[in-house]
Amino acid sequence: MATRKRKTERRQDLIEAARRAIVQYGTDAVHLNQVAEAAGLTSGAVLYHYPDLNDLLLEAHHAGMERFYDLRMKKIASIADPAEKLVVTIRSGLPSSPDDDDVRLLCELGGSAGRNRVYATLLTTLYDRQVTMYQMILETGRAQGAFTLSGDSQTIARNLVALEDAYGYRIVARHPLIGPDEAAELILDYARQATGHPLRPAPEPARKPRAAGTTPKAR
Amino acid sequence: MATRKRKTERRQDLIEAARRAIVQYGTDAVHLNQVAEAAGLTSGAVLYHYPDLNDLLLEAHHAGMERFYDLRMKKIASIADPAEKLVVTIRSGLPSSPDDDDVRLLCELGGSAGRNRVYATLLTTLYDRQVTMYQMILETGRAQGAFTLSGDSQTIARNLVALEDAYGYRIVARHPLIGPDEAAELILDYARQATGHPLRPAPEPARKPRAAGTTPKAR
DNA sequence: ATACTATTTGAATCCTTCTTCAAAAGAGCC
DNA sequence: GGCTCTTTTGAAGAAGGATTCAAATAGTAT
Q1: Which residue of A193, B8, B121, B170 is surrounded by the most CB atoms within 10 Å?
Q2: What is the per-residue pLDDT across A174-201, written as a single tens digit (0 to 9) for each?
Q3: Same domain for B50 and B11
Q4: What residues in A contact B104, CB-CB < 8 Å?
């Protein structure tokens, strides 16, 4: 028997398991048994915590989305320079590889949004939040005189998020020529035009986020 | 009994039915019975033509993709002016509404591409073809002196297709602020910077494609 | 008309999944 | 250690989908 756990803890596990099962089988195709197996439990145990599988799937998508967003925010929180911040932000919106589960979950969500209003709302909310995030960076850069925006910040921010999204799909679909590096460069090409800043690409992402004020060593 | 048809004809019907069923239920979740019902047949009849449902689903996706691409090509074939051609092309890559089944099928494909290599290839192929299509337009515009490209045509073309893709998802997910018109304007904003051309937005798409040489009436 | 053949149906069978629930088993408490 | 409450299992039953195939049917050819 699987080690017994407390309700909240187990529910957390189940959300994680659901995430994995969704990525593997698809949101609309995943079976209760598959989620149970991913969690190392039987279907009965899953049902004990989530009498309706759809509730669990929704929570999994919701959690995945929040995680994706929080992770990005954390990665850029300590960066003061708007140009560097923009570069890192662009990077953090792309999958690290075709097997990046966080992004694959979002792609999954995109596929289902057309036929599920709740998922559609979730995805739209994420998009809008990301747009706002970019807008802040752009406006800050402009205020500091670093950026000369080619148009209003909302338009640029919307396009930046759109580009990220789209290249996420390309990378997840294993485009033979467009990987994370190439995608970042393509987006940067737009970002340079839009900000009037040279935006040199960031070095390999550091293991830990740098403390504010320290400079990345040149390479 | 459903009216009997010839093999090729019925297979065509089935591909259409599968398309509809996929959009409604999801590529990975759709059941044989649902496809059969969409075609107005029984599951046995479907199996008679496609012993393996996956083959049918693949053909449906393939056909949907080809159709989408062909339709675009047809819409722009008769347009000589590169600027107008670019504007119309951008429009034709966006869903006409959140219920545009052609685009919804492609979104579906994007969701499944992460876990199905064949679908991934299909989607990648479409992307590359669209990039080439845009490249032709851009290069032609440059050769004629109409465009002053901000960078190499491949980069611009890749970004244009990426923007289209992404806004397709936004529209299908019913973003409350971004519909076909707004998306077109956002993409045009980028296209203007990239081509150095004012690219005034096209009037409402005409019922029939205009013959080459005729001018759209002003409004 | 008739016969022929390709297509479609519908019923039977087999499988898989969902759902329910009594019983088992861990975890915490006294 | 024994008691209690919560969590988990496993079995059983219900529901539905996939697959197979003989029989029916509708076009097509003669």
Answers
A1: B170
A2: 999 999 999 999 999 999 999 999 998 6
A3: yes
A4: 114-115
